[in-house]
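ok so i was messing around last nite and threw this chain in just to see what happens. nothing serious, just curious
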Amino acid sequence: MREWARDAPLAVGLALLVAVLVAIGAGGGGALDRLGGEALRERFERVQRAAPGIVHSARFDPEDPRAGSADEDFGDVLGRYGTAVENASPKSLDGGLVHDSTRIVLPTVRGGIAAAGTVDLSLVYASDAPRPAGYVAGRAPRGRGNAVELAVSTRTRDALGLRVGQRFRLGDGALKNVDVEARVVGVFRADGERRLWKERPLLVRPLRAKDAANAGALIAPRGVEVLQRQAGVELTVDWNMRLTPGGETADRFVGEEGRREFQRIMARYPPSARRAFCGAEGAYGGKVCVLGNHPATELETATALPDTMEEFSRRWDQARVVISFAWASLLAVGFTALVVTSLSVVRRALAGDRLRQARGASAGGVAARRALWSAPAVLAGFGGGCALAGAVTAVPPSYQGGLAVALLCSAPLPLLTWAALRDGALLRGRARSAGRRLVGEAVVLLLAVGGVFALRARGTEGSAGPDPLVAAVPALLGVATVVLLVRCYPWPVRAAARWSAAGRGVVPLVALSRAAKEAPARGLALLVLVVTLAGAVFGGLVSGTLLEGRRAAAAWQVGADASFLGAGRDPAMAERLARARGVRETVAVRQLRVDPLSGTDGGRYGVSSLVGVDAGALRDAGAGSAAARALADAGLDGGGEGGDIRVLASDGRAGELLTFTRHGKEQRIRIVGALPDDVARDPALGPVRRATGARQHLLLADSGDLEGFAASDFEETALLLFGDRLDTAELRSLVPRAAPGAATGELRALAEERAEAAEDGLVAAVAAAHTGCTALAVVLALLALVIDLSLSAPSRGRVASYLRTLGLGGRAASALHLLQLLPLVCAAVVGGVVLGLALPSLLGPVVDLREFTGGPVVPERHVDVFFVAALGAGICVLVAAAVAVESRIGRRRRLGAVLRLGRSDD
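result:
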């Protein structure tokens, strides 16, 4: 007990280290699932900003009293069916799937408004329309007989000169056979982040056109019935569902098992919703159901959530690999700190243990006594670590993993004690020790090289849980780096010592000579610093690369300041976008997928992506396009010549002729030259090539050579919009965000894509994991470094004391300590930074950051030079502080307390 009380500070430090390591082992899986759950919830939220997660639709005919009850209000009918499909949601989602809104969108009708002239009105019934508090004048539309009541926004009121109570006639527009009086009954505020405004921006503000203004208005369910009865058309009602999983529910869906469970849930839900809606499952086509007194079809379901989950799962698998490297580096630093602490305990008790051995105790008995001494600290660390893991992860910790870590933590102290006291340990020759060291270093190097090759060859696919190989490779690489540094850095240090011998001062000679001599003994301190710096640099490299890669991928997906995908299917919309405010230039990019044959031997050339772009317009847009530059350099930036399509090819020889058949007519492609490598990464081609396989050949032509093709021949056509001051809100008012399954064109804005890239939850999870692991590793490394310096402090103190007897001053003693530690710090900084920067290349396809960012190629590595410099400077400041403290203690120490007659170990 007296011995335990005397060494209580070391026992407390050991308990803290064990607690940290047990918390990592017991709570690592839970923390990883929690990060994944947060990222998954953010992904679902971001996807559902643009459109509902699940859309249930039914088509219904005009009201027929014989079909159902004519007395029930149509709005109540829609609400009742919305509740039915919500109640059919799976119980395993824990109420995370809720009915968000009910919508009916009518074809446009024309209204004659005195102050504004002819107006095309887009009428919408929305259950998520503003409540009474959101109206600045009047009230919401209601159902009254055959009246059509409308509500408009404040901007629409001001732009069209409307007022509450104003009446005007509605006539034929896209909705035919309409002649009814409409009355404005309310004016609402269209502000905030309500999704209705994003999906139906015409409700917010109208647009001016040549013939008529375009505006939106809210309508009551009874008004929908009146207009439908007059027009005699079929309409569609959408019940929009929103998935907002809770914390534990989202965490459960992370991983391979969770992905399969989610897909099963999404497969079972549509049939359940159909049964709840109608009960006539399997009757394809026809109006076999009723919606109040309207004959209706079965419920149809469209959702993008399963595809979102598949995409997230692929990215999360890669994120888990990247995070596991930070986890492994933290564990390596923690166990190294534990070994250093155990060495300190062994060094402190070595004299007493040798005395016990001299009195007849065996080395194993003394080691068992030391294990018994450390048992309370290990047990306390196990309990504290499990409690910490449960508090951080908010889920029960893995007690089995924590117990395994605790048992592993209890091993170093008795093993090191036994190694220090084993029979004959002090009598063995240095030659045999050097031979064992060489063998050990060779084994470490072989294991590191073998681990890298095995990981590159095997990859990480199929590893649903923690991967021991992924966890072991960073630690092995750190140990191998330390082995090389310990062997290499003494050479330049000895050379510097010999060079300093020509000077007049003795401090550099003594300090550098001792630094070179003690290099093998500094292996643990070097390992701690190298692994910590390598993990920090690798984490900073990954985070910076992901952020920059996401920005580059956003530019690739958009292609310009904005782009309209599907311009070939909706040329009228493309024309309106080209005239929108802020649009300076427009360029059309088109893609045609072909499978040509060689005109020489008739062999297949391979599936190719034939992309046409107006090189002149793209060059004039000032985008610095590599595609426009390549076409101009090859003389292809004009109209076609003859019947051949002249292209630049990613594969093929200049002058080669290719042929393919389109609509029964043979087309010829002539390869004029090779395609420069940077063209494949040109963002201008991204909108049409985003879904094209990377293995397909790329054939680039000027649009003039593709004039013989009809617009319907192209698989994808994008209109690139250039402008320094694009009005994104106006563009969105023309092209709302599309719902799942919609066939309309898609508008992409660079500002929106970059904002979403900056908010990517998966990238944030990777950055948070690396930041947390790096911060904790730095704390453990500081602890290990302080303990290691304290172990070697007596030796440095004796040397300084010897020199003080020869007249060495206080400042010179401080310089001695600093120079003696400076080679270690330099070696650690160089080795850690080089290893951190080399990890992506060493691991190769295992760390595929393209899965996070998208885009045409693997993102370029982005090294944060300031961060790396700050890490190196921090290590230097730490060592300088340690030297200052040690020098101050050395000045107060009496020489008689340090120097002992007969000491020869220095």
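not much to say yet. DSSP finds 28 helices and 23 strands in the chain.
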